[in-house]
């Protein structure tokens, strides 16, 4: 039932187990027993659907870490979306690993930390620094080839990357993996422009749909996706328990 979460284990520095439930059916006694048997320090439960039938998790000592909305679109030509003058920004697309992309490594790590601050790891008070390591590793993994495509928004005046979107192809679905825009450049349409470019790539690659998962309370991100034609397809609730 439980699997080891290699990524979290390495980045948090503890043995982390995970259980993903698509049906919302979660047997906490079985999780407790397996966790003890496998000597997990933490178990994360990721449950698709509503939180209403998960009260027994709270009663069994699990902490609620957050809720995510899963957005999907099959329309790659959005009519809405913030349209601003972006003549001071140019967009460059890369397929990692790529030496040129390494020139923006520092910028990308800085932008990665901005995403980290919106993530569930940021709210894990038991491991207050973990989100920094998680998102540092995440960016490194993307640069090393986990991402199929990275589009950078580069400030023409400074040559710095002030935004990026990373895309991962999974069969006929294009996943928007991470998006971030420097707060000094936010609300100028860069996030929307990056999202439109992702849709263009999906169209060119004959993908059937584009999917993105975001925290349910991340209003700017949701605004960008909704205006780009995405609709909520499902939700996911995340819990964890220390052993
Ligand atoms: C999400 C993010 C990429 C958007 O980038 P951006 O360049 O600011 O996006 P845009 O300018 O294209 O659009 C932002 C929209 O959010 C709206 N918005 C921003 N803050 C808002 C708030 N507090 N309440 C309501 N709407 C808000 C803006 O008004 C705009 O909508 P509009 O087109 O209707 O005016 C950026 O906010 C960001 O990097 N956030 C942190 C990282 C993150 O959350 N990434 C997404 C999860 S992977």
Average predicted confidence as pLDDT? 95
Bound molecules: coenzyme A
Number of E-type strands: 10
> What is the gyration radius calculated from CA atoms?
19 Å
Describe the structure.
- With 243 residues, the chain is an alpha+beta fold.
- The chain has 2 domains: 3-68, no CATH class; 72-234, Aminopeptidase, CATH 3.40.630.
- Helices cover 33% and strands 32% of the residues.
- It contains 8 helices and 10 strands.
- It has a 10-stranded mixed sheet with strand order 1-2-3-10-4-9-8-7-6-5, sandwiched between helices.
- Helix 7 links the parallel strand 8 and strand 9 (209-215).
- Helix 1 (6-12) crosses helix 6 and helix 5 (105-116) packs across helix 6 (130-146).
- The radius of gyration is 19 Å and the shape is globular.
- It starts with a strand and ends with a strand.
- The mean pLDDT is 95.
- Coenzyme A (COA) is lined by residues 82, 114-115, 118, 178-181, 186-192, 214, 218-221, 223-224, 227.
At a glance:
The chain has 243 residues and is α+β, with helices and mostly antiparallel strands. Helices cover 33% and strands 32% of the residues.
Keywords:
243 residues, Aminopeptidase, 10 strands, binds coenzyme A
